[in-house]
Amino acid sequence: MAAQFVRFTPDVEDDDPHFDQNVQTVIEKTERYIAESVEAGGTGRALRDAHAKGYGLVRGEVEILDGLPPEYAQGIYATPGTHDALIRFSNGSPHAGADARLGAATGLALKMFDVPGPTLLEDEPDTGTFDYANINGPIFFCNTIEHYLFIQELFLNAPAYFSQGRPGAHRFFTDFVTGKGTLDQDNWAWDEFLAFLRLAKIPPVNVLLSSYWTMGAVRHGDYIAKVRITPDPSFAAAVVRRTIDPASAPEVFRPALQAELQERPYAFDIQVQLCTDLERMPVEDTTVEWSEQLSPPVTVAKLRLPQQDISGPENLEKMDSLSFTPWRVTAEHAPLGNIMRARKEVYRHSSIERHKLNRQPRTEPRSADEVLGPVHHRDNAPTDAEGPPGSASPPA
Hints:
The protein is of the alpha+beta class and 396 residues long. It has helices at 19-40, 145-156, 158-162, 165-178, 190-200, 233-236, 253-263, 313-321, 338-357, 368-372; strands at 54-64, 81-91, 106-112, 130-135, 212-213, 218-220, 223-231, 266-274, 298-305. Strands 1, 2, 3, 4, 5, 6, 7, 8 and 9 form a nine-stranded antiparallel sheet that branches. The two termini are 24 Å apart. 44% of the residues are buried. Mean pLDDT is 92; it is low at 385-396.
């Protein structure tokens, strides 16, 4: 069985001679946007340059399953047990404001506690935390850091384009495909543009009902993987507020999430999809969806959300002070590829700048209780007994 999975070697990543220079440009643009967002963002605070609007900070618990096949029992998943966790649900846009203006791309950022081993962040190796920063689409709309330079600019300026109606939208689409006139016609960004259109067409649903992917590839110990966090079907079936109408009120995603968690517990499956073919499941091309026929995702852990109240303004305040990055992981789970590599320094500088402008201490918490306070009743967390057998492989 193991022979069918591609083994990780450093040469699965492409070397880009201009990488450091281009990342520095992205960092400078990002820091400028965050600084300007204090005035321009409408909240009086510095915003994240992506996933600016949070929908709630949720307490959770990750149970790493016992008895996994050896190819999946890699890195942190080699040791069964439970970890306390925090989850930030968010909108993917770099802007804040009414939900109707922001689109239906949403994120699930997960922070696990008490994970042994140093992280890949040199300035905070011993935090004992492990992050995922996933979005509700299996692909990403940018393949290289060179293209990210113009795509980031387009996204940060999107309101100015789209406020001009159809002519503005046409100009946005033209600038995307042509790289704002910088790309040869043979190299126009069609794959990335089509990936963007696909993500833009995601229908709005309760954030508990979406699946969330790492987008790019990551190391999975000896192998290469993508990781998704997907609803446990038995818990998804119990969700009452399923469809979301962003036109019905300025705030729609957060109230729906809040109401569900006040009424009942919830659970997701954390699943690993191992690479079996670097041609058809590429590391460097994030616009390509990895086929589940080539390699079905396998559940390696359960993410359980107990019944809880996230309604207070202090929940948003505590959520705002946290930072999540795909690089706060151990070496066995290193993000792979040009775009994932760029996220390391961009996320770090973004977090530093935002915390500085908002006068927030930038320290990693040691536990969920440290952030949300101790919980006195843990008897309402979902258990496997509440879900049907065989719920390990739900549909996307």
